[in-house]
Amino acid sequence: MLLIQCPFCGERDLTEFSHGGEAHITRPANPDKISDEEWGDYIFFRTNPKGIQYERWIHSHGCRRWFNAVRDTVSDEFLGFYKSGEQPPKIKRRKVLRK
Amino acid sequence: MVDITERRSALESHYTAGTFGAECNGHPGVMLAVRRNLSIVHVAGKPDDQTFINAIKSACGCDIPFEPGSVSVAGSLSLIWLAADRWMAVSAEPDPGILEATLRRACDDTVAVIDASHASTVLRLSGPQARTVLMKGAPLDFHARTFTPGRVATTMISQCTVTLVCIDQDTFDLYVFRSFAQHMWEWLRDASEEFGYEVSDILSG
User: Fold this and answer.
1) What pTM was computed for the model?
2) Reduced to 3 states, what is the DSSP secondary structure of residue A15?
3) Chain B within 8 Å of A34 (Cβ-Cβ)?
4) Whether the Cβ atoms of residue B198 and residue B125 lie closer than 8 Å to each other
5) For chain B, N or C: smaller number of CB within 10 Å?
6) Under an 8 A CB cutoff, do A9 and B68 touch?
7) What is the CATH number of the domain that holds B158?
């Protein structure tokens, strides 16, 4: 059972949440003026890191609020949670034991 | 002629009062009932707006429950926390327009007041095994010291979103979307079978 800390409701089971992809992607301010390539980057391309990722989650079967989480994509461990609009917490890259 | 203005329960054709399930010698582990004719109004407002706080207090007679997962009660009216800026007012008033009108009169147009009385079916689950039945379905901490009377949580039972309100240690109200009511009712009956359960008469209010 994987627990997620909703910043509003507290610790709840993963099944109540839906994943919303990478966080902190800013919509281009002037979509008419940028190239198709830049627009394609914004719409389709994501960092997809092996390690720490800042991502969006929604408590879809709870308070229905969006928030952000920090997750290690290798171990699936959640390292922090924060509300939308808040500064992301600084997470030090940790040594993960890998064989 | 069928009176189409009359409110009908989503469970009307599935509801049979009586005792079912395991042999329980007159002491069923679980009691199930449907609560009808409630007024349910959703309210969304800014939690830091003093005018909003005062308006709700004057209309409902109780303070807005700001603490996540808490409920305020004033007589037959409950104000239930749903999210950081959303609440649900529930009263036993059978005409849903009255509660909505009262809240709308009290609040200015920065507050959203929406009558949702017909949106959900309200089930009441009680008895010594009621907590155990819920534990079988919802991924929530149901320890008697954690989920105490006056607490509310929106969670998931059998793939459906339910808002659970703890009325007292052994009594819970389940707010289910109307179209999922039959599924939830069947799930509850199935989960209660091992304890023996009684379906009481429909509760009006």
Assistant:
1) 0.91
2) helix
3) no
4) no
5) N
6) yes
7) 3.30.1360.120
